[in-house]
Design brief:
- The complex is a heterodimer of chains A (about 300) and B (about 475).
- Chain A is an alpha/beta fold.
- Helix content of chain A is about 50%, strand content about 15%.
- Chain A is built from 15 helices and ten strands.
- A five-stranded parallel β-sheet of chain A has the order 3-2-4-7-8, with helices on both faces.
- In chain A, helix 4 runs parallel beside helix 15, helix 7 packs across helix 8 and helix 8 crosses helix 9.
- Chain B has about 475 residues and is mostly helical.
- In chain B, helix 2 packs across helix 6.
- The model of chain B has no long low-confidence stretch (mean pLDDT about 85).
- Classes of the chains: A alpha/beta (about 300), B mainly alpha (about 475).
- Chains A and B meet through helix 1 and helix 8 of A and helix 9, helix 18 and helix 19 of B.
Chain lengths: ~300, ~475
């Protein structure tokens, strides 16, 4: 056998051996994933209840739990990690709705970072999928086992191997409706940095806000009910708002002027992880139920007031 | 199509499976290469294959016309320059130019609001333009006989390993190789595989894992830190750009080897250079030599006296800066290197320093400081940001602020690994450790296998190669 073939063979064997070893050992894996990530583009024209936002919504909102309170609906969690409300994302949300349905609802998880130029238009999971659909779709959705097998490792594993006595529980369960139930111990290093540093990039963009408000206006004029909420946990986002002079109350007023409804939640009710960045799986279920109840109440209020 | 993507792996597997079928017929070989390269290019945006074919047709027919009508060579060359550079100017510099004219006029009190063309930048247009110009200029100079077959020329121009981000291959180097049939030798395959593994490792493990720190630093994510903090941060783009681009070149050279071709060396350990002249002989060699042969020497080079030589040098580096991107940061980066070279020519400061104890170390350190500062300008979003970061780099008031809070564990691990690697190499060169040939081959084999596994499991978030934008 030639040296070239030998190297190819040895490398392939090593990849397989390492991949198998990793899946056998939780210590080498850190984050254990269950289930298949849905190809959310397949939802086009099929939903009448859409949840959108960043990873706080992706991990914090279970459409099934919302529907259990709100009543029957074809619901999907269309949130993506690090996603902001850029024009491509807003356009894709519009495409998801089945406009023939009488009741159409869009629920937006709006936080400071979703209004930043960077998260909206430069770098997020949605844009990665949008710009490179073949690769992402093929591996993540069509060949989930291959994707999981070849998934890059968390570098935290190395630090972790040195401290084998440390406790860990890290998992994500991918639901077909887009919700990623998850919990992670130890927390991601980047997430446990001081909130001031973490939200340093979250400089809100007036352009992104204007675009979002225009789109909300358009949706409501087409008969779509639009709800917005500041997805819990909100600690770091509040710091971000203060640092860059963002006025959340002013934004909420403009949002409501565009015809949408703002929902408020008590942050301290829900357990979070990653230094207050994401809701734990159990807290996400409680929050989703609250979210469903809140939407229902607002709808009743609206119908009572004759709107 | 990105080298570090699943579609490319499938594309390459099919290509190399079919390639042996075309070992006998030259026309079939060229046709297959051209077709595969067009598919590779069209994967990004199929509309621009017409631009690629159009550029190729212009260069090919002007080259042939020069051979048929030697008396009109000059006007034909002028036509080729206008068409090729015109296309490059239109796609790459039109908005930059009009915007600067607008700013200039508004400073004079004249209000002018031009419409932005906002044309998409065709992938690799700068590289394609330079390949075409090489072909035409070499024919004009009588250094190259034009090929009479378009497929032969087009397979040279579009050959997918070098199509998008180089290395810039001279027609005199590649056209003769394309006229040979046969397959890669076993030795070429081994070298090719080694280069590809090294290239993927550099790109996917080193460059892509440094990227988050670099992106964070230059997008304003990183908190204000002290001098040492910023030196650590700015070390990352220096290595990221190097690993990204030299990784791409290694993969391109490896792919060429697997086809049975040879591409020239494009990077030769540039950060070990002791002079700036040496640095430019080691960094992006194919571009540096292109500018030397087609801009610097025609402007007189160093043969027409010191002042004329420095003038030619500045023009060459300003153009080289502008070639990298339509922005003042790139032009300033070119100007800074021209300045470094001018000072070097005038003072030969490295020679003097090398005479004192620890002079070698001092020269390396000063070279690195200057090159790093230039990279800050190259990578910065705008001149203000570049100025802010450079001011931090030389702010001695609080050197240690936040040094322990450097934001990326991966990046720091990589930077220290590189330093460790360099020290180990230096020790090895001094023959303190004397490995036998067989032992060295075994170690190399094991290292390459580990690199493959690392490229899969320790890869960073995949992104396009930095030089694609040029």
């Amino acid at each position: 056998m030639t040296k070239t073939n030998k190297l190819l063979l040895v490398s392939t064997c090593l990849i397989l051996a390492f991949g198998i070893a990793r899946h056998q050992s939780r210590r080498l894996q850190l984050l254990v994933s269950y289930g298949t990530k849905p190809d959310k583009r397949e939802w086009r024209g099929r939903l009448n209840l859409v949840f959108a936002g960043n990873s706080k919504v992706e991990r914090g909102v279970s459409p099934a739990a919302v529907v259990s309170v709100l009543g029957p609906a074809r619901a999907g969690n269309f949130a993506y990690s690090a996603c902001g409300f850029g024009s491509n994302y807003l356009a894709e949300i519009s495409r998801l709705l089945d406009m023939n349905q009488q009741e159409k609802i869009i629920v937006l998880g709006i936080s400071v970072s979703t209004l930043s130029e960077r998260n909206a238009n430069l770098d997020n999971e949605f844009l990665r999928m949008y710009r490179n659909p073949y690769q992402v779709e093929l591996l993540e959705s069509r060949l989930p086992r291959v994707y999981d097998f070849l998934k890059p490792m968390d570098w935290g594993v190395f630090g972790y191997l040195l401290k084998p006595s440390k406790k860990y529980t890290s998992f994500e369960i991918r639901h077909a409706d887009g919700w990623e139930a998850s919990w992670r111990i130890p927390e991601l290093r980047i997430q446990v940095q001081k909130p001031r540093e973490r939200v340093g990039y979250a400089r809100v963009s007036d352009k992104v806000i204007q675009k979002l408000l225009q789109q909300v206006n358009m949706w409501t004029s087409q008969g779509v009910e639009v709800f917005g909420f500041d997805a819990p946990p909100q600690t770091m986002e509040r710091v971000g708002s203060k640092s860059y002079g963002f006025d959340p109350d002013g934004f909420i007023q403009d949002f409501q002027k565009a015809g949408a409804v703002w929902l408020k939640f008590e942050d301290s009710k829900y357990h979070s992880y990653d230094g207050g960045a994401h809701l734990r799986n159990d807290a996400a279920l409680i929050f989703s139920t609250d979210l469903g109840r809140s939407i229902k109440d607002k709808k009743l209020e609206r119908s009572d007031s004759g709107k | 199509m990105l080298f570090n993507s699943l579609p490319f792996l499938i594309f390459a597997a099919i290509f190399f499976l079919l390639w042996p079928c075309f070992r006998k017929s030259l026309h079939a070989r060229w046709g297959f290469l051209s077709l595969a390269s067009l598919l590779f290019y069209a994967w990004w945006d199929w509309r621009f294959i017409f631009l690629l074919i159009g550029s190729g047709l212009v260069a090919f027919y002007i080259g042939r016309a020069m051979a048929k009508m030697p008396g009109r060579r000059k006007s034909l060359l002028l036509l080729a320059l206008i068409l090729h550079l015109g296309l490059l100017l239109l796609f790459k510099y039109a908005d930059f130019f009009t915007e600067n004219v607008r700013v200039f006029l508004s400073a004079l009190g004249v209000s002018w609001q031009p419409n932005r063309l906002a044309l998409p930048l065709p992938l690799g247009i700068s590289f394609i333009t330079f390949e075409c110009l090489s072909y035409v200029i070499d024919i004009y100079r009588g250094k190259l006989v034009p090929t009479s077959r378009f497929l032969h020329f087009f397979s040279f121009l579009s050959l997918f390993p070098h199509l998008i981000a180089g290395p810039i291959i001279r027609p005199a180097d590649l056209l003769p190789q394309l006229e040979k049939t046969g397959l890669a030798t076993e030795e070429q395959k081994w070298r090719g595989l080694r280069l590809m593994i090294l290239g993927f490792f550099k790109k996917m493990v080193l460059a892509d894992n440094l990227a988050p720190l670099v992106n964070a630093a230059f997008q304003g994510d990183t908190p204000d830190g002290g001098m040492l903090f910023w030196w650590l941060v700015t070390t990352s783009p220096a290595f990221q750009i190097y690993f990204d681009f030299s990784g791409y070149t290694d993969i391109a050279r490896g792919l060429a080897n697997w086809m049975g071709f040879e591409f020239p060396l494009n990077f030769d350990q540039p950060y070990r250079a002791k002079t700036f002249r040496d640095f430019w002989g080691r960094w992006h060699i194919s571009l540096s030599t292109w500018f030397r042969d087609y801009v610097y020497i025609p402007l007189g080079g160093s043969k027409r006296g010191t002042v004329a030589g420095i003038f030619a040098l500045w023009i060459t580096f300003l153009l080289s800066g502008a070639w990298h991107g339509a922005g003042w940061t790139f032009i300033l980066w070119g100007a800074l290197h021209a300045f470094y070279l001018t000072v070097e020519r005038a003072t030969s400061w490295q020679k003097h320093l090398l005479k004192i104890p620890a002079g070698g170390f001092l020269v390396t350190l000063l070279m690195i400081v200057q090159i790093w500062v230039a990279w800050v300008i190259f990578r910065a979003e705008n001149l203000d940001q570049a100025g802010h970061i450079i001011a931090r780099l030389f702010d001695f008031r609080s050197p240690f602020t936040r040094i322990t809070e450097a934001p990326n564990f991966r990046a720091i691990t990589i930077i220290f690994s590189i330093v460790f690697w360099e020290v180990a190499r230096a020790l090895h060169r001094r023959k303190w450790i004397n490995w036998g040939r067989r032992r060295r081959e075994q170690i190399e084999f094991a290292l390459l296998a580990v690199m493959v596994v690392a490229a899969i499991y320790l890869r960073g978030a995949g992104g396009a190669f930095i030089y694609f934008q040029f």
